[in-house]
């Protein structure tokens, strides 16, 4: 079991007021991922000024620039790189998650704590956090426990926010099931009765911006799910 405890206080103090920022100015964290890239595309299509936080990488995220976004380099595991990326930003949309080879807490807990604290200190006016459906019911699963801890940390920070719990990405089924079937390879699954209401990430992105524009859901916990839940069987 992972113990979530943040160093420092969640009650960061806002900096002195500076130049007002446009409500259309957003930072997408995790913008090269399955969900993040759809958030970027949707935001650009709806007229937002999009800045993408991307870790320094051998293969640059040129496709984000080609779409019309601005790309800035930072690393959530290095908190000192975060503040400069937030200058002039109104809203953060946090789609980030750690890489499989990394310790689970590095990005998904310690990095998120640093990002939330920086956002609070720099006066970010809205923070959208993607979590996992029923994460509060499965503390034995490290990622789900960390997601729930982050939900609580964000709530306690006082930062204006929306938390969106997701069930699963339809796109993930391509690599998990479709490709092995087409290649006549084995498909691995579980006989557990767990049902997952998968959603297309394009639909998640569309609903995210509907929620972002709805002041009634500020501070709320939302769950996005597909119209039907499926088992592996």
From TrEMBL:
Flavoprotein listed as a keyword: no
Subcellular location field: Plastid
Any one annotated GO CC term: photosystem II
GO biological process: one example: photosynthesis
Record keywords, A-Z: Photosynthesis, Photosystem II, Plastid
Gene3D superfamilies: NAD(P)-binding Rossmann-like Domain (3.40.50.720)
Residue ranges annotated for the NmrA-like domain, each copy included: 25-225
Pfam family, one: NmrA
Protein name, as recorded: NmrA-like domain-containing protein
Provenance organism: Gossypium armourianum
């Amino acid at each position: 079991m992972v113990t979530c405890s943040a160093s420092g206080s969640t009650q960061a103090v806002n900096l002195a007021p500076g130049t007002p920022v446009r409500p259309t100015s957003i930072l997408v964290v995790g913008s090269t991922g399955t969900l993040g890239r759809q958030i970027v595309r949707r935001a650009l299509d709806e007229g937002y000024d999009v800045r993408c936080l991307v870790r320094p990488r051998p293969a640059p995220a040129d496709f984000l620039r080609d779409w019309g976004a601005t790309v800035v380099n930072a690393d959530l595991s290095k908190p000192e790189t975060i503040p400069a990326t937030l200058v002039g930003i109104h809203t953060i949309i946090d789609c980030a998650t750690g890489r499989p080879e990394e310790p689970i807490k590095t990005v998904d807990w310690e990095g998120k704590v640093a990002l939330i604290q920086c956002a609070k200190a720099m006066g970010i006016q809205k923070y959208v956090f993607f979590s996992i459906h029923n994460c509060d019911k499965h503390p034995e699963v490290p990622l789900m426990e960390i997601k729930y801890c982050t939900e609580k940390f964000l709530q306690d920070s006082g930062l204006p926010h929306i938390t969106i719990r997701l069930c699963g990405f339809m796109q993930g089924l391509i690599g998990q099931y479709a490709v092995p079937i087409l290649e006549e390879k084995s498909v691995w699954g579980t006989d557990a009765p767990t049902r997952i209401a998968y959603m297309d990430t394009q639909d998640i992105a569309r609903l995210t911006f509907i929620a972002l524009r709805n002041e009634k859901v500020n501070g709320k916990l939302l769950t996005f799910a597909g119209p039907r839940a499926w088992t592996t069987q």
